[in-house]
Amino acid sequence: MKKRFAIILSLVLFVALLTGCAGGGGNGSADGKNVDGNLADLMAKIYENMDPPVEFFPMDTSFTEEGDEFGKPVEYFIGTAGIPFAEGLASEAAIGAIPHSIVLLRMKPDADIEAAKKSIKANIDPWKWICVGVDPSDVIVDNIGDLVVVIISDRSTEFHDAFKELAQ
After folding, report:
1. Would you say 84 and 107 are in contact if contact means Cβ atoms under 8 Å apart?
2. CA 19 to CA 42: how far, in whole Å?
3. Can you spell out the DSSP letters for the chain?
4. Are 144 and 28 in contact (CB under 8 A)?
5. Closest CA to 89 of 115, 109, 69
6. In what order do the strands lie in the sheet with 100-107?
7. What CA–CA distance (Å, rounded) separates 144 from 161?
8. Domain ranges of the chain
9. Which of 2, 26, 39, 73 could hold 89 in an S-S bridge, CB 3.0 to 4.6 Å?
10. What is the largest CA-CA distance in the chain?
11. Nearest-CA neighbor of 144 among 122, 167, 127?
């Protein structure tokens, strides 16, 4: 009886171990691999993956932890400072009356990505444009490996799906 109990207990523990290790970690990619490529090419792929296509002209702006070349601070793009990223690219509607922003961040190797995502989500302003914005539920912050995306759009779910296709 003790031998049978030990075998059953061992099997239960083995199955529990396999089940616990199978989770994707909630970081957008089940295998945790990084997405290779420069941010401009990855941004272009996100737009290419959209169906129906985007009907406005987006403008891309590179930025650092200090902000962009036009004087916009990093908080404008990701809602907070102090996020350890190596490079950032924002794609926003060229017309200020369209509330749309997609930001890609390539995080530094030692960055705590989950903490960065929480901070961005807590501080991002879905009404950062003059007179227009989106519902806070239309703000998505996710990652695939070291690539973080911040989406503020009334089509955020569609853009998020297009972003997730980068992992394939």
Report:
1. yes
2. 33
3. -HHHHHHHHHHHHHHHHHHHHT--TTSS-TT-PPPPS-HHHHHHHHHHT-SSPP-S-EEEEEEETTEETTS--HHHHHS-S---EEEEEEEEESSTTS-EEEEEEEE-TT--HHHHHHHHHHH--TT-SSS----GGGEEEEEETTEEEEEEETTHHHHHHHHHGGG-
4. yes
5. 69
6. 67-68, 58-64, 85-93, 100-107, 147-153, 139-144
7. 12
8. 25-167
9. 39
10. 76
11. 167
Q: What's the token pair of residue 119?
A: 């901070």
Tokens of 81: 């400072």
Going 56 to 60 to 65 to 66, the CA torsion angle's sign is: negative
pLDDT (tens, 9 = 90+) of the chain, 168 residues, equals 555 544 443 444 443 333 333 333 334 444 568 999 999 999 999 999 998 888 888 999 999 999 999 999 999 999 999 999 999 999 999 887 899 999 999 999 999 999 999 999 999 999 999 889 999 999 999 999 999 999 999 999 999 999 999 998
C-alpha to C-alpha distance for 69 and 66, rounded to whole angstroms: 9
